[in-house]
């Protein structure tokens, strides 16, 4: 499992008018090829009356699955430009659909490539490109006497607890970036004079930017 890969954080949508044709760019993260196909079908159903619903998607840790469709546009003018935008941004596990409503003016091969490139990009930007960075979920158990001090530490460090369970002691569940894990645990142990219990549960990719998790 790679520690970091780039994708979009969420569903995104934006549109532009080019020579009277309306282009709508859609983007979404996916967790399987089936997910990409379902998203494409959803957009096609939504825009059954559109002139074209062009798509491209990349899936897999090594971007090993790459598919595209011109959906009736001249070969090489639509699907490949959309795929190239995804690849240029070094994204994976993402699907992009560009819907076109023809406005009566032909754009020509170069015009189509530029239009589909721009539309794919605005869709991806709307979905917000992020680094999916491997995090470790921790269970941290501290005494109530240290809980206030621990909360201040989290707040000042920019961390947010996923869950807090109040038993004989306080149990805090939190994700920490794998690259910062050793320093974080060291800080916790220093803060609690070595009395905290820290248990690693599992790893998960979460969105981040500039080395900080996006909540």
Give me some keywords for this one.
Alpha-Beta Plaits, 32% helix, alpha+beta, elongated, Ribosomal Protein S5, domain 2, five-stranded antiparallel beta sheet, 215 residues, six-stranded antiparallel beta sheet, 5 helices, 2 domains
Give an overview of the whole structure.
The structure is a single chain. The chain is of the alpha+beta class and 215 residues long. The protein folds into 2 domains: 124 residues, Impact, N-terminal domain (Ribosomal Protein S5, domain 2, 2-Layer Sandwich), CATH 3.30.230.30; 83 residues, Alpha-Beta Plaits. The strands form 2 sheets. Strands 1, 7, 8, 9, 10 and 11 form a 6-stranded antiparallel β-sheet that branches. It has a 5-stranded antiparallel β-sheet with strand order 2-3-6-4-5, sandwiched between helices. A hairpin with a 5-residue loop joins strand 4 and strand 5. The model has no long low-confidence stretch (mean pLDDT 94).
Query: Which structural class do the helices and strands define?
Result: alpha+beta
> What is the level-2 CATH architecture name of the largest domain?
2-Layer Sandwich
Q: Give start-end ranges of low-pLDDT stretches.
A: none
Estimate what percentage of residues fall within beta strands.
35-45%
How many structural domains in the coordinates? 2
Give a brief description:
The protein is α+β, with helices and mostly antiparallel strands. The protein is built from 5 helices and 11 strands. The chain folds into 2 domains: 124 residues, Impact, N-terminal domain (Ribosomal Protein S5, domain 2); 83 residues, Alpha-Beta Plaits, CATH 3.30.70.
